[in-house]
Design goal:
Length: 151
């Protein structure tokens, strides 16, 4: 599975005006709802519930909020950059890069494969720096796709 298989060009947001973790999650939930046909409030509630189990702020300014949803038909991935917001990250650093991953209840190993693929992309410091310098959603998408390589 490549990120291009689950991330559409129009599922990328550049420079979201979020002031908090909840606002950033809300922007991602709204994006997901538009692309999947699910209710935005239901998506946001599921993401917040997942955050209660433990932060998805994985460090170095990156978050990977994810959850399973019973009404979802296929995996959805979205990506957003924002001004830095407190995300209760493991390293206590604010988040400005966030991938959201929604998976059907029965997704099984595909959920873990997608998380691993995105995590691998975000471990590359050059890629992360390039994402932070991007000036448009189109450029962000291109950077993600071009840097999603097999190890």
């Amino acid at each position: 599975m490549k990120i291009a298989d689950i991330l559409a060009p129009d599922a990328v947001l550049h420079n979201v005006k979020a002031k908090s973790k909840k606002q950033l999650l809300d922007a991602l939930a709204t994006l997901a709802a538009k692309k999947t046909g699910l209710d935005a409030v239901a998506v946001l509630d599921a993401l917040i519930e997942r955050e209660r189990l433990g932060t998805t702020g994985i460090g170095l300014g990156v978050a990977l909020p994810h959850t399973r949803l019973s009404k979802l038909k296929k995996i959805f991935c979205g990506f957003a950059t924002s001004e830095p917001v407190d995300f209760d990250s493991v390293d206590n650093k604010p988040v400005d890069l966030a991938f959201v991953l929604l998976v059907p209840e029965e997704a099984g190993a595909d959920h873990l494969k997608a998380l691993a693929r995105i995590s691998r992309l975000l471990r590359n410091e050059e890629t992360v720096n390039a994402l932070r310098k991007a000036t448009s959603a189109k450029e962000l998408y291109q950077l993600v796709i071009e840097n999603d390589m097999d190890e």
